[in-house]
UniProtKB/TrEMBL annotation:
<feature type="region of interest" description="Disordered">
    <location>
        <begin position="1"/>
        <end position="23"/>
    </location>
</feature>
<dbReference type="InterPro" id="IPR044281">
    <property type="entry name" value="IMP4/RPF1"/>
</dbReference>
<dbReference type="GO" id="GO:0030687">
    <property type="term" value="C:preribosome, large subunit precursor"/>
</dbReference>
<keyword id="KW-0698">rRNA processing</keyword>
<keyword id="KW-0690">Ribosome biogenesis</keyword>
<comment type="function">
    <text>May be required for ribosome biogenesis.</text>
</comment>
<protein>
    <recommendedName>
        <fullName>Ribosome production factor 1</fullName>
    </recommendedName>
</protein>
<dbReference type="GO" id="GO:0042134">
    <property type="term" value="F:rRNA primary transcript binding"/>
</dbReference>
<dbReference type="GO" id="GO:0000470">
    <property type="term" value="P:maturation of LSU-rRNA"/>
</dbReference>
<dbReference type="InterPro" id="IPR007109">
    <property type="entry name" value="Brix"/>
</dbReference>
<feature type="region of interest" description="Disordered">
    <location>
        <begin position="53"/>
        <end position="79"/>
    </location>
</feature>
<feature type="domain" description="Brix">
    <location>
        <begin position="117"/>
        <end position="300"/>
    </location>
</feature>
<dbReference type="GO" id="GO:0000460">
    <property type="term" value="P:maturation of 5.8S rRNA"/>
</dbReference>
<dbReference type="Pfam" id="PF04427">
    <property type="entry name" value="Brix"/>
</dbReference>
<dbReference type="GO" id="GO:0005730">
    <property type="term" value="C:nucleolus"/>
</dbReference>
<feature type="compositionally biased region" description="Gly residues">
    <location>
        <begin position="1"/>
        <end position="13"/>
    </location>
</feature>
<feature type="compositionally biased region" description="Basic and acidic residues">
    <location>
        <begin position="63"/>
        <end position="72"/>
    </location>
</feature>
Length: 324
């Protein structure tokens, strides 16, 4: 019989027939030759998948409510993060060797409160408007930072001038096709120097529901998931950009969040709604960094000694292997 034959659901011939399954288990969208039909059927298939997933979720919830305290614990979903390949350089907080290295490395004077950060922010030659605005906004995030433009000077000539003027760090923003795409962070006077690839840059005017302009208060700094020896060094580099004593009255916080070796930067302000409720309001700018190399000493592209270089073909063999 065809689809139109047979008793209908309302003619008194028994209970209605169960809803016909839209897609058989062996259904494949790629077998449909017509492009428009293929796109339409793919959307229908995705819709059915969502319905089945939601129905299964409701069914499991009812079963857990019926079992009450006897319900089995919820299964932990498998993610790339919790299946991460173990790294032998993961830092143990109680490791004496790590404590000794931190007490004697280039950032020790900052953490011992012997030096106060003073940052120089510069750009590649002839920066365009977007890069200039990004540097200006970055200077409002990092206290005691100053923006100067290159005017054709080589970095090897800029670094001695920075050291003579007591700058503790140098930040260089590089651009390509009018878009900021790289960041060089050099700790002065003895290094190290980190080179990052920059992406997903958003200025303040491009952020939805942004707050008012940041104040001059020293922000709190949050560093997340810098767990290896390399990650520890990068985290200390970022921490050394900000004065050691935050002014909590300003309610501002700068966050460097490492996830799968991508470092996400966000700048927020706390909004206290009551004694128990608190919200956050993004101030901007925001950007994402990916470490490309870590070099001993100050910037030297020709004779510099590298501690770590990202080699894609050798290091990116597993999606569950992270270096920071």
């Amino acid at each position: 019989a065809g689809e139109g034959s047979g008793p209908g659901p309302g003619d008194g011939a028994g209970p209605p027939a169960p809803e016909r399954v839209l897609f058989p288990p062996t259904f494949s969208v790629s077998e449909i030759k017509n492009k428009q039909r293929r796109h339409f059927m793919f959307l229908r298939w995705k819709q059915q998948q969502r319905k089945e997933k939601l129905a299964l979720k409701k069914k499991r919830k009812k079963e857990r409510e019926a079992l009450g305290d006897k319900a089995p614990p919820k299964a932990v979903p498998k993610t790339i993060e919790n299946q991460r390949v173990y790294d032998e350089t993961t830092v143990d907080p109680n490791d004496e060797e790590v404590a000794f290295d931190e007490a004697t490395d280039e950032f020790a004077p900052y953490f011992n409160r012997q030096t106060v950060p003073k940052i120089l922010i510069t750009t590649s030659d002839r920066p365009r408007g977007r890069t200039v605005r990004f540097c200006e906004q970055l200077a409002t995030v990092i206290p005691n930072s100053h923006v100067f433009y290159r005017r054709g000077l080589a970095l090897k000539r800029i670094i001695p001038q920075c050291i003579a003027r007591d700058f503790t760090d140098l930040i260089v923003i590089n651009e390509d096709r009018k878009i900021p795409n790289g960041l060089v962070l050099s700790h002065l006077p003895d290094g190290p120097t980190a080179h990052f690839r920059m992406s997903s840059v958003r200025l303040r005017k491009e952020i939805k529901r942004k707050g008012k302009e940041p104040t001059e208060h020293v922000p709190e700094v949050i560093l997340n998931n810098f767990t290896t020896r390399l990650g520890h060094s990068i985290g200390r580099m970022f921490a050394a950009l900000f004065p050691h004593d935050p002014q909590f009255i300003g309610r501002q916080v700068a966050t460097f969040h490492n996830q799968r070796d991508y470092i996400f930067f966000r700048f927020h302000r706390y909004i206290f709604k009551s004694e128990k409720k608190v919200g956050i309001q993004e101030l901007g700018p925001r950007f994402t960094l990916k470490l490309r190399s870590l070099q001993k000493g100050t910037f030297d592209s020709k004779f510099g000694e590298y501690e770590w270089i990202h080699k894609r073909r050798e290091m990116d063999t597993s999606r569950r292997k992270f270096h920071l």
